[in-house]
Amino acid sequence: MTDLSLQTKLVSLPAHKDQHGASVPPLYQSTTFRQTSLDEDAAQAYDYTRSGNPTRTIVQQQVARLYGVDSDQVFAVSSGMTALDVILRSLVLNSSSGGASAPPPTVIAGDDLYGGTQRLLTFLGGRAHARALHADTSDFDRFVAVFDAQPRVDCVVLESPTNPICKVADLPRLTAFVKQRNKDCLIVVDNTMMSGLNANPLDFQCDVVYESATKYLNGHHDIMAGVIITRNRALAQQVYFIVNSTGCGLSPLESWLLVRGLKTLGVRLYQQQHNAMVLAHWLESSCGFRRTPQNKALVTRYVGLRSHPQFQLHRSFNRGPGAVLSFETGSFEHSKRLVTSKRLRIWAVTVSFGCVNSLISMPCKMSHAAIDPKLRKQREFPEDIVRLCCGIENIADLQHDLLAAMIDADIVECQDNGKTIFNKLNGLRGPNTTGKGALPNIYDEFFGAHLASTESQVVRAPKL
Ligand SMILES: Cc1ncc(COP(=O)(O)O)c(C=O)c1O
Ligand SMILES: N[C@@H](CCSC[C@H](N)C(=O)O)C(=O)O
Hints:
Layout: H1 6-11, H2 54-67, E1 74-77, H3 80-96, E2 106-110, H4 115-126, E3 131-135, H5 140-148, E4 155-159, H6 171-181, E5 186-190, H7 195-198, E6 208-212, E7 226-230, H8 233-246, H9 252-263, H10 265-285, E8 300-301, H11 311-317, E9 324-328, H12 332-339, E10 348-349, E11 359-361, H13 373-378, E12 385-389, H14 395-408, E13 412-415, E14 420-423, E15 429-431, H15 440-457
Parallel strand pairs: 2-3, 2-4, 4-5, 5-6, 10-11
Antiparallel strand pairs: 1-7, 6-7, 8-9, 9-12, 11-12, 13-14, 14-15
The structure holds pyridoxal-5'-phosphate and the ligand N[C@@H](CCSC[C@H](N)C(=O)O)C(=O)O.
The ligand N[C@@H](CCSC[C@H](N)C(=O)O)C(=O)O is lined by residues 114, 116, 163, 351-353, 367, 370.
């Protein structure tokens, strides 16, 4: 029998022991577990929730199924940043085992990272716990140049696509290069923007993946959580040691909610990506945020768009584009007026992404404010960039809401009795295709491809 699909595995939990046969595994909201023997050979699975808890075990089992590893290779922790902190602590632990005089480990990370990741790496660098360098990971040759200029690289932290610029790092090629240069270099991938449903970096030579489960995995913005997944058994033991020693394991209630969130990951992500595809095409073709010889800057950035310079590369190792997109207005003031417009009824001005609700933000003032403005400028991070994180609402409602706010912010106007949308900032126009009329092309492209891949998996019913 063929293996079950990921979506099915996430909905149907493995059998669990419960005296009443509860369909949903119970929440073990207990710190301690009674011990029936003091004999070491009869050690029980649980004694104290910092060390382990049955509800946390269930969520770890589910994430293990998502990534195709054993459940003792997965750790659920209190946030995405905690996940990275634990991984980096293991690196620092290993390097200090070389003695007090051992140099701090050298880490190469992207130069377009989530603001909190940048902050943590800068913090470690400032205390000489690690030497963090940055490279444009979407440019293979530049990355190689930075890597080869170091006497030794101990760790590489990768993220693709980046949040919110949507730059793609060629993860299979980069990981193969790094391992060929130094098989002991720890390769870490932040898979938050994709989730395990869209990409599994463990399939190429990455050592450890983490996700902010606060985002897609949970999907409802009611918990903070992180997950760490590795195939490397020695690293798994170290991670367990750090989680148990520091007490950063995910709490029982959060674990229980994450198990529930994971059940609907498949349908949520599907609808969120559908909305993002429609919206990105609409912003590009109808609202004038598209590349032309005259307009190279005010474009829609989304890895699901054919016009994205790395569209094919992204598709080559991911199963979907995710639901985060961005665009620039060319003016900080216009972007601010859009994001703060009173006409927004559905799009909430909120950080984070991966939630069932649609969110709009200005990263330079919100999620990426932790990056020094001088560094943002040096890295050409646009101050006027607007990020859209699509939820599961009706797509026509989302378009109408955004259009009303864009008109209110003086970015676009409707012309020809509403038939055309004119972009006042770059002079481009397109047909007003909000509502049902906007959908056919996208449906062909998106669902066409999806159905084709589903059909290729269809097998004959077994003879009973
Ligand atoms: C790409 C990415 N990685 C990691 C994190 C950190 O996750 P958390 O907020 O759960 O600590 C975030 C957002 O916060 C993020 O956007
Ligand atoms: N004030 C927070 C900002 C969190 S940003 C959350 C998320 N990663 C996003 O991209 O929106 C902080 O200082 O970390």
